[in-house]
Amino acid sequence: MDVWDPSLWLPRNISWDQVPAKTEDLIYPFYFALPFVFFRILWEGLVGIPASHLCGYNSGPLIPNALQHIFGGFTRNTRQKRILECFWRFSFYTFSWIYGLYVLWDKSWFWDVKNCWIDYPFHPIDQSIWWYYMLETSFYYSLLLGAFFDVRRSDFWELMTHHFVTIGLLSVSWTINFVRVGTLVLVSHDVSDIFLEGGKLVRYSGVHKTLTNICFVFFMSSWILTRLTYYPFVVIRSAIFEAANLIQPDYELYNPFQVPYVPRLIILLLAALLVLHIFWTVIIGRIVARTITEGEAADVRSDDEDEEEEQKVRQLRAAKTRTRKAD
């Protein structure tokens, strides 16, 4: 049997010609990924560095710093590099979330997830949805490329797994036109990343302790609402318990021998993302514990240099405390 046999991928009696999403479009994220990286470097150098100067992160000469970053500085493990990485991710997630809301606000499935399955697979894809999907997929490809020069974090392999799972989910969902549910996954995930990266930027300033904690509260709240509530109990629940009845009523999701097989792969990828969410929730719990004991939200997903700096700060605080007690 041909791997592209529609019976393996699509509901009964549906051919590829009837599916609005075209598999050949998935070549575009490959084309866009490298330009994404180039744009990121320019964005960090021409926008991020001036912004960091205005906010007091850097005091060196502006133009030489920007040119140095663009022409090789982006590969160095420096404090400025870590700040600019956060700035890039904060910028993209903010843009993609706002654009996602703009694209989805008047869409029926944004307000009722059942509309992801009704009339499937004949859902038309307008230009705004096409660009939303392609840009998000390109972004995750660019993160894989950026892994070669980005600061290596303590959860590097979990992040790589997340990127591969996300790319797989976006690609497979596009292939079988599960695009509607894919857009819900994207828009619900981006919002917490805005607060995560924004909180890191505030924390790097080293002077806004209260604002850092406020950002962490917003991050934790959005994380719980979107990734631990909406995603599993609305999106995944609907995919498991409602999709089959609305698409092909005699389809048995738990029968691994019944075609089509690919919808089960979508469920597995959704579940894999949830497992990663749970893993990072444990990390968030560690942040909460550290915040209670030290009074400031920290980034447990830190690189080795961050850990050394934090250790020095903790030792200095402890020394000052002992000095006060001795006095």
From TrEMBL:
It comes from Mesorhabditis belari. One of its GO terms (cellular component) is membrane. SMART domains: TLC. It is a multi-pass membrane protein. GO terms for biological process: ceramide biosynthetic process. It is found in: Membrane. Its main location: membrane. Pathway: Sphingolipid metabolism; Lipid metabolism; sphingolipid metabolism. Residues 314-327 have a biased composition (Basic residues). The keyword ATP-binding does not apply. Residues 298-327 are annotated as: Disordered. This is TLC domain-containing protein. Keywords: Membrane, Transmembrane, Transmembrane helix. InterPro entries: Lag1/Lac1-like, TLC-dom. It comes from the Eukaryota. It holds the Pfam family TRAM_LAG1_CLN8.
